[in-house]
Design goal:
Blueprint: H1 2-8, H2 10-15, E1 26-27, E2 37-41, E3 45-46, H3 58-71, E4 77-82, E5 85-90, H4 92-101, E6 105-110, H5 115-128, H6 134-148, H7 152-159, H8 163-171, H9 177-184, H10 190-196, H11 202-214, H12 219-231, H13 233-262, E7 265-271, E8 274-280, H14 284-298
Parallel strand pairs: 1-2, 3-5, 4-6
Antiparallel strand pairs: 2-6, 4-5, 7-8
């Protein structure tokens, strides 16, 4: 077992997915030895709800599906037996693409993994592909730490990375949720987000993020801005809070005016630079009144 664990850790980094997949001969559904690649019904395969990757780009999946239609699935999935079904450890992207391609059977290797080993294998595969969402990666390290009581040093050894890499990744989770959303949507880079961590207040972090986007700042320029903000953090927070109160008062006034005009409950919500007006009707009569008002205003 010790040798097996090394294969999933630093040894895996040099061997790639070969450390997880000892290729053997294709077998039948009953031939589930350690090194056998078997083909099983795709309907018996289930995704792992705890797998690190949470987002799969539809366009990329369709491209892979076209490849599967042309040459099939070259690299088998790694799965574990779960009653009458099989749970994916590594290869969910291939599984999803195979479903799009209309494949009936999928090549797999069946392994016996405990929860830690399964998470480890899934994370390593995604990291090796180098397109894992940085937040998903950080959240997985957090799971290693909280669910399995592993230190950052132990996590680093298991995934074949430096401890500082793991530490810097986990620090991203200290960002305000609005900033994390910008990172997930690739509007901000990891480099920018590491700079934003120079301030602790969530509203100030988000303000920094908005300024970086508005002015299309480089990481170096962002560092200069955050340095100024951190030196005067208290004053900047007070300014943000004052602006927030002013905005809230403006919204409250506008909501009240719209309620009177429309005869319905109105809420104004802010999401980044966008403003959203929500109108709640309590009856069909209110809806009819609103439509009549809109028609008369444009006639």
């Amino acid at each position: 077992m010790a040798e097996y664990r090394r294969g999933l850790g630093r040894g895996f980094k040099s061997k790639g997915l070969e450390a997880l997949i000892d290729t053997g001969n294709r077998g039948s559904d009953n031939n589930e030895s350690k090194n056998s690649v078997i083909e099983i019904d795709i309907m018996k395969i289930e995704p792992n709800k705890k797998q690190p990757r949470k987002k799969f780009e539809r366009e990329n999946l369709e491209e892979l599906a076209d490849s599967i239609k042309e040459i099939g699935i070259i690299q088998p999935l790694i799965v574990t037996k779960d009653g009458e079904f099989y749970k994916i450890v590594a290869g969910e992207r291939r599984y999803r693409a195979a479903r799009i391609a209309g494949v009936d059977k999928i090549p797999v290797i069946v392994r016996k993994y405990d929860e830690l080993e399964a998470l480890q294998a899934a994370l390593i595969e995604n990291i090796q592909r180098e397109d894992l969402d940085p937040i998903d990666e950080a959240m997985t390290y957090k799971r290693f730490n909280e669910e399995f009581s592993l230190s950052q040093e132990e996590i680093a050894k298991k995934v074949g990375k430096n401890r500082s890499t793991v530490s810097n990744s986990m620090r991203l989770l200290k960002l305000d949720e609005r900033v994390l959303e910008l990172l997930k949507n690739k509007k901000l880079s990891v480099g920018h987000c590491k700079v934003i961590l120079g301030v602790e207040n969530g509203d100030l972090q988000y303000d920094c993020a908005q300024r970086i986007l508005d002015e299309d700042m480089s990481v170096r320029k962002a560092e200069e801005m955050v340095k100024i903000m951190s030196d005067n953090e208290e004053d900047h927070i007070k300014s943000i809070e004052r602006d927030k109160r002013i905005t809230q008062n403006i919204y409250a006034y506008a909501e009240n005016e719209l309620r009177v005009i429309l005869g319905a409950n109105v809420k104004i919500r802010q999401a980044g630079k966008k403003r959203r007006v929500q109108i709640d009707f309590s009856s069909d009569e209110e809806v009819d009144g609103f439509l009549s008002l809109m028609k008369s205003s444009v006639s």
